[in-house]
Amino acid sequence: QVQLQESGPGLVKPSQTLSLTCTASGGSISSVDHYCTWIRQPAGKGLEWIGRIYFSGRTNYNPSLRGRVTISVDTSKNQLSLRLNSVTAADTAVYYCARGSTVYGVETSDWFDPWGQGTLVTVSS
Amino acid sequence: QSVLTQPPSASGTPGQRVTISCSGSNSNIGSNTVSWYQQVPGTAPKLLMYSNSQRPSGVPDRFSGSKSGTSASLAISGLQSKDEADYYCATWDDSLNGLVFGGGTKLTVL
Predict the structure, then answer these.
(1) Please, are residues B8 and B87 in contact by the beta-carbon 8 Å criterion?
(2) Sheet holding B71-76, edge to edge
(3) Which of A25, A36, B24, B101 is 20 to 30 A from B50 (CA-CA)?
(4) Who among A52, A109, A116 is closest to B33 (CB)?
């Protein structure tokens, strides 16, 4: 059973770069059957998908964040990374990593399981 | 403003059946399947349903999902106090080329 754990600075200054890591234990963070994804949740608000990276290295990003976000994976360390640059207070949120699955057919199925416990990042000077 | 529309709140008494809706469009729910997540306050979301109506191992059969056209629903029967949580629907949007979530529904067990 794969378990995921996010880590990184809890406080980032405006205009700087937010960097987070997600470490997997009990299994591989990425495989041909799964991808890795980041999701965030501002306090008291809903979930926002940030982006994902496949085993092949292919990425998809939320159009609203494209240009500021980079997701990468280091399979040797079993770690997923997130970099979000030029942050503002609007980027303050709990950030979750999760393992994703996709099944392609007449309709595409995507789902996230498991999730990490999340890490709070506050953007403030 | 979420791409998928959910009622902000729902409620029921123990033992009752409640339904939470998720409304989208042809580019998202109309073209792809829906997953559902349960989030107990202060904890990470947990997968509740995938591919519209498939329950992961460990999810009780009191939970069921369905989809019709551009809308999906999550039904909870035999409501229990531990079901009190926020529920989110999600799917891929072909036009946005991204994964979208509903705004979430806060379920209260009276």
Answers:
(1) no
(2) B18-23, B71-76, B63-68
(3) A25
(4) A109
